[in-house]
């Protein structure tokens, strides 16, 4: 939950908006430590901004490495894209954000550290009835064309050509031209048409996947995801992905500042410490740390809103990012038969992929009367707009003979900005090499999906490598 905004904060927000509008750098407020009593100054080895998958994992691993941390999170809980609903009637829980994890030693070790048991689940061939429908018109759509297994084998052979994509963006020079192709061209070049449908099912939130740069698609749907799609993923036995973050929250204790936002940072190279001024429910505090970790999407507008003292190189790099938008909802849909999955496909597009903005899928959950509705768009949409489009899509099912009523929304989550990307020319000209050079620049490190992939296991793997090399 965000804190109430004071008049001063409103003024700062207005100035920040003006700053973005005219692209003129503005210095953050000067730091005057004399304004803060000793009890309002927090000194740690590392300050982490963002308590999602990346920030929480970094905090736990640093504590295991005997470093002191403080974790700042704007929400009232940890977990980022993890969304869990507890049904008060049945006392069951339903995840409608992050759902699965690859079956990797790192995943098993992380959950095992908190004594959270895991089990394997198969995604393909679940006991569900699938209907493929054009949710613009209610027209049934036929099955995906091509041999999926054969195409996935060919796709995996392509992935094996780029082992450096497994962790981070450590690209060679020159960047292989295939990685810079629109993914639709890459598919045609290597005859991967039979894999497009399943890739679209897993790469939800990636925008128009046929126009998306191949590099990002290969990162998002990597070998470990292919293996999970075919052989099964891991989930907590409890069926509650928030259990991991509840356990992490308990372990970190007072080193977590929830409902808290950074109002400005100071990272003077001449000083031993980096500073972050944070608005918390108990008042403003100053965090003094030897190193700062940014575990949120490094979009320029987001960093400016928290008055991060960016230099020219940081502004130049972060200003190049664009992003996709992704939304999830949990709803009851009266009239939809239990166990039925609705996949949105188009009748008049290549590979039947629906034009965005659009519903991706309406999925069953372990709670028979609750369903997840997953939705994507290129440009950001309001909650009312997304729910309105979800509702219109559901009503189209009536034309297929399914007597549905409008969805009754139980929970909703906006995961935007989602996938952060830059154009192929920027990648070709060394963008990611320059971005990687920011690690450690001005005592600051970056650990989010933007630096690897929107995949919890891959984020954790990236963080492990960076911590081992930069946080002795």
UniProtKB/TrEMBL annotation:
It holds the Pfam family NAD_binding_8. Coiled coil: none annotated. Keywords: Signal. Residues 1-21 form the signal peptide. The keyword Metal-binding does not apply. This is Amine oxidase. The lineage of its organism: Eukaryota, Fungi, Dikarya, Ascomycota, Pezizomycotina. The keyword Signal applies. It comes from Aspergillus bombycis.
């Amino acid at each position: 939950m965000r804190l109430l905004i004071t008049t001063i904060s409103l003024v700062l927000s207005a100035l920040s908006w003006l700053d973005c509008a005219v692209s003129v750098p503005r210095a953050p407020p000067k730091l005057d430590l004399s304004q803060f009593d000793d009890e309002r100054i927090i000194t740690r080895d590392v300050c982490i901004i963002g308590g999602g998958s990346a920030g929480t994992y970094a905090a736990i691993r640093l504590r295991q490495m005997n470093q002191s941390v403080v974790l700042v999170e704007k929400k009232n809980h940890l977990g980022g894209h993890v969304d869990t609903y507890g049904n008060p009637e049945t006392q069951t829980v339903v995840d409608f954000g992050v759902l699965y994890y690859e079956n990797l030693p790192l995943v098993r070790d992380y959950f095992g550290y908190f004594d959270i048991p895991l089990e394997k689940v198969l995604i393909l061939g679940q006991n569900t009835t699938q209907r493929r429908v054009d949710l613009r018109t209610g027209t049934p759509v036929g099955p995906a064309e091509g041999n999926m297994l054969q195409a996935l084998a060919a796709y995996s052979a392509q992935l094996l050509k780029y082992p450096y994509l497994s962790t981070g963006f450590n690209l060679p020079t020159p960047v292989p031209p295939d990685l810079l192709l629109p993914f639709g061209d890459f598919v045609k070049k290597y005859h991967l048409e039979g894999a497009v449908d399943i890739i679209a099912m897993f790469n939800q939130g990636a925008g128009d996947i046929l126009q998306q740069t191949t590099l990002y698609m290969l990162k998002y749907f990597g070998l470990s995801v292919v293996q999970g799609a075919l052989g099964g993923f891991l989930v907590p036995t409890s069926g509650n992905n928030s259990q991991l973050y509840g356990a992490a929250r308990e372990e970190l204790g007072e080193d977590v500042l929830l409902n808290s936002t950074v109002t400005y940072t100071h990272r003077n190279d001449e000083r031993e410490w980096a500073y972050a001024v944070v608005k918390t429910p108990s008042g403003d505090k100053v965090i003094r740390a030897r190193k700062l970790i940014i575990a949120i999407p490094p979009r320029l507008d987001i960093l400016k809103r928290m008055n991060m003292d960016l230099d020219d190189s940081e502004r130049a790099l972060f200003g190049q990012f664009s992003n996709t938008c992704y939304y999830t909802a949990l709803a009851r849909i009266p009239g939809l038969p239990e166990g039925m999955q609705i996949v949105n496909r188009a009748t008049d597009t290549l590979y039947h992929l629906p034009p965005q903005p659009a519903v991706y899928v309406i999925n069953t959950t372990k709670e028979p009367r609750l369903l997840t509705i997953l939705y994507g768009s290129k440009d950001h949409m309001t909650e009312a707009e997304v729910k309105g489009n979800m509702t219109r899509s559901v009503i189209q099912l009536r034309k297929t003979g399914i007597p549905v009523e409008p969805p009754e929304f139980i929970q909703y989550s906006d995961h935007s900005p989602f996938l952060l990307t830059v154009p192929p020319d920027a990648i070709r000209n060394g963008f990611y090499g320059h971005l990687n050079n920011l690690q450690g620049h001005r005592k600051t490190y970056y650990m989010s999906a933007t630096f690897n992939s929107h995949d919890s296991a891959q984020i954790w793997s990236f963080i492990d490598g960076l911590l081992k090399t930069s946080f002795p």
